[in-house]
Amino acid sequence: MEEHTTHSSLLSLGPQVRGVLESFLQETASAFPGGIACFAATGSCVTGDYVQGRSDINSVLVLTDMDPSVLDKLASMGRRYGKKRLRAPLLMTPEYIERSLDVFPIEFLDIKLIHQTLLGEDLFTDLPISKSMLRLQCERDLKAKLIHLHQGYISCSGGGRGLRALLVEAYPGFFPLFRAMLTVAQISTGPPILKDAVLSGMESTFAVGLEPFREIRAMAGKRGFGHDWSVAKDVFNKVYKVTHELSLIMDRIS
After folding, report:
1. Residue 16: CA atoms inside 13 Å, Cβ hemisphere, count?
2. Would 125 be classed as within a structural domain?
3. Do 45 and 141 share a domain, yes or no?
4. 119-145 burial by CB neighbour count: b if 16+ within 10 A, else e?
5. pLDDT by residue (tens digit) across 203-216?
6. Rounded CA gap, 133 and 127, in Å?
7. Cβ distance 4 to 118 under 8 Å?
8. pLDDT of 87-142, one tens digit each?
9. 93 in helix, strand or coil?
10. pTM assigned to the model
């Protein structure tokens, strides 16, 4: 596989993301000399969906070997970089990737689709993802989301602010799932990357309306929006209904 240099890969990122990741890369390279197989940025920070000051910066750190001291070294950086919206990197080894593709196909598909390798070898572009394993995890995750919505709704105790927070928190986690569903359903074309295109692709492919997810995005972007219980409950009910519909659809796909 082609190797990428840190400098050229970082140049393709936005200036705020680039500055944070460049600093983090320098520290991790010093902390693990010769031990990094791959470091890649992933998620919205490498797409047009990134919103400065609101979106998190996500990454994957693949080490040649893993031991408890790794966690101590990274923990010492955690608070400083957390303030810059850099989330703790996903930690794995090449062996872990190979042995986990059938367990976490949705997560690895999303990394495969959305990543920028900044150091070491690109270990994700050519990952083989099984559609049968994807379908199974899609069905399982949709049903798990229904349970999460049940529990979250009860925990809100009739408060619009809490229900709004539940929906806004749940929103990003639907998109890796939607991309996986589109991958299962499509024969030749890959799924879209940007969120608007993903929602449109889901609507045309599965004949469902996903407008409530656009309403959640509006909630997240407007201060005070959705604090009213009746407004938040209406959006919740629509999200719950479409999640249930999608779980039935995936249950029927062989």
Report:
1. 13
2. no
3. no
4. bbebbbeeeebeeebbbebbbebbeeb
5. 999 999 999 999 99
6. 14
7. yes
8. 999 999 999 999 999 999 999 999 999 999 999 999 999 999 999 999 999 999 99
9. coil
10. 0.91
